[in-house]
Amino acid sequence: MRTPRTDFPEMYALFFRLVFRRMDPEQAHHLAVGWIRLAARIPVLRTFLAAALAPRYKELRTEALGLRMHGPFGLAAGFDKNAVAIDGLSMLGFDHVEIGTVTGEPQPGNPKKRLFRLVADRALINRMGFNNDGSLAVAARLASRTPVFRTVVGVNIGKTKVVSEEEAVADYVKSAERLAPHADYLVVNVSSPNTPGLRDLQATEALRPLLTAVREAADRVVPARRVPLLVKIAPDLADEDVDAVADLAVELGLDGIIATNTTIAREGLGLRSAPALVKETGGLSGAPLKERSLQVLRRLYARVGDRVTLIGVGGIETAEDAWQRILAGATLVQGYSAFIYQGPFWARAVHKGLAARLRTSPYATLADAVGADVRNKHA
Ligand SMILES: Cc1cc2nc3c(=O)[nH]c(=O)nc-3n(C[C@H](O)[C@H](O)[C@H](O)COP(=O)(O)O)c2cc1C
Fold this sequence. Notes:
TIM Barrel; eight-stranded parallel barrel; three-stranded antiparallel β-sheet; 15 helices
């Protein structure tokens, strides 16, 4: 007989079908964020929800980027672009929350509709275009925040659309100066497909001066601590370009690489979801991204080993997916799309499954498991 607890995810699935699926995806997103914020403001409710949805597992405690976390599993950038729901997301069990992408100046993003659900493929296509309140407003919001839960907050920064490529470095530096004081870690996003020219910044000739300038800016405004600096890359990079970014990260002493952002590829799609949807311009995320993101991660780990912290993201749906990323070299893992489809019980399921997986594995700690697959292959 089933315990009632296992029915909660099914209840969410039903709710998703009856409510969210009938709504425009972006409206559903705003509604969900509103509910998460509201729940986190009501002390009795948030205590209850945190106890139910964010149980802590001692064996999953993670140290990465010089930061202590309850576990390795976080919410990827893009869900909370403006840092309005950090406590609520922590209440739902995410061990770290990456806010943003925040750009130097506020901007509305691309015209709507710009977010599409490919339900049958457990995927999303988005061309949001960095809609956000801008670095000044988000910095002020972070500065005035009184955290209820202890969670790690990553800040992901990107280029303002109207800023020219020549001025790109200055735009990132502006964001870094404003946001680094409030960031547990800082991410330079050069991989979203929805800002023209952004992904060209992944080329090492462009990336080297950009990362150097952001590093200097962070050190200048936060002299008391070294704010960990990471770069987030696209799954569409050729393998040699992945290697080049890995080598650059080692050369510059970068703290981490996040692999990967969404893809512009559409491989393996079109059989289940409507062809018109598949043709929408933008970045594809979710299940179809799983394989390529894992490949990129493996390649990075084979190249950088333990010298650079890797964060695995792209198509993670289950604890098993998260575990595979850890074995492939990820110290931390993140997700976004599966949160839409699995709802508030998702992080809980991933934690529970990860803890069980670790217990039955040959590894004493999560840290021992990081990269084990790649190391064994090369042993
Ligand atoms: C609607 C949406 C908006 C996103 N916005 C951002 C963003 O602003 N910055 C960023 O670095 N990644 C953004 N992403 C990419 C995610 O952070 C993540 O890298 C990608 O979706 C792959 O993970 P997933 O398959 O678990 O969704 C966005 C993804 C989605 C679905």
